[in-house]
């Protein structure tokens, strides 16, 4: 039995997580790159150049717009491929191939820049350069997504065990601005890695050197960065000596409160990401999670940049 659901219903914001206007912009932006990807696959399969005019040949049962909608629903609600295939009246392998194509294109987009239509940030250096030009004070933090434990007998099983969560996780580092708008996310690291180490592996030390006017607000997990880059990496003040006077402790608590109030916006950005069900708990292959996280971060940045 084949069930065909109205395409207008599937494209609703409750299913896709994006407005119809946002969906229309994504269609316009990604249609060309998707066609290039498809032609590349066909070229490798044919082993030669195209011999027919563009548009010739068999028609797709799942056109580009439907492929985009199916991918968004999968990212938003984590519906199985077989369920999406049943809703669209196609084979499961068609949905799997469509999600793999569209998800990669979404991940390559990067994050939107507020007030700069068409400009997107894809690397940490891009974020620091934009922050120095625009005078933005950055907020950086890390979050962990629970993943499946590697199979027994494979090396590196302990690398994913988080000392904080006591679970198998992968760690993502996020940068947001003072309004909680996502500006960048990195390639995910195993959950056992320290937050500061993950940031260093992405080249944050080099960015601090090349962009000396950029300041980043951090939490207590990045004290090493504050030590190495004073004046740029700002963390809450350390706890004073036990014999310090009461007014010293009061001043420290007030300073920590001010710092936390300014840094809390990056926590709001992380909360926006976790509203997409696939990032609450990842049950698929671990090597696909980085692409998925970047795709979702780019979609969230589109919405917050235009808010």
Automatic annotation (TrEMBL):
DDE Tnp4 domain location: 140-281
Obligatory cofactor(s): a divalent metal cation
Domain of life: Bacteria
Gene Ontology MF, one: metal ion binding
InterPro entries according to UniProt: HARBI1_dom, Transposase_HTH_dom
Pfam families on file: DDE_Tnp_4 (PF13359), HTH_Tnp_4 (PF13613)
Keyword Secreted: no
Residues in Transposase Helix-turn-helix domain copies: 61-111
Alphabetic keyword roster: Metal-binding
Protein name, UniProt field: Transposase
């Amino acid at each position: 039995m084949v069930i065909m659901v109205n395409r207008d219903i599937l494209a609703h914001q409750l299913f896709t997580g994006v407005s119809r206007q946002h969906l229309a912009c994504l269609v316009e932006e990604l249609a060309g790159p998707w066609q290039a990807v498809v032609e590349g696959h066909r070229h490798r399969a044919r082993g030669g150049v195209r011999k027919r005019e563009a548009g010739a040949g068999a028609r797709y049962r799942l056109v580009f717009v439907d492929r985009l909608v199916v991918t968004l629903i999968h990212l938003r609600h984590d519906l199985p491929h077989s369920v999406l295939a049943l809703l669209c009246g196609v084979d499961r392998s068609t949905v799997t191939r469509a999600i793999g194509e569209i998800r990669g294109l979404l991940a390559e987009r990067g994050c939107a820049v507020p007030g700069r239509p068409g400009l997107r940030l894809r690397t940490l250096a891009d974020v620091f350069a934009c922050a120095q030009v625009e005078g933005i004070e950055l907020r950086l933090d890390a979050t962990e997504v629970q993943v499946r434990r590697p199979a027994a007998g494979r090396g590196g099983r302990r690398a994913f065990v988080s000392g904080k969560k006591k679970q198998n996780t992968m760690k993502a580092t996020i940068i947001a601005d003072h309004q909680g708008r996502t500006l960048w996310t990195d390639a995910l690291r195993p959950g056992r890695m320290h937050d500061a180490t993950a940031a260093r592996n992405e080249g944050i030390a080099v960015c601090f050197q090349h962009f000396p006017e950029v300041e980043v607000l951090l939490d207590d997990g990045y004290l090493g960065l504050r030590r190495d880059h004073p004046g740029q990496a700002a963390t809450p003040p350390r706890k004073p000596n036990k014999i310090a006077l009461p007014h010293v402790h009061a001043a420290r608590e007030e300073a920590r409160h001010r710092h936390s109030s300014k840094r809390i916006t990056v926590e709001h950005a992380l909360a926006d990401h976790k509203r997409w069900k696939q990032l609450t708990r990842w049950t698929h292959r671990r090597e696909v999670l980085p692409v998925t996280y970047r795709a979702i971060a780019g979609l969230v940045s589109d919405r917050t940049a235009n808010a």
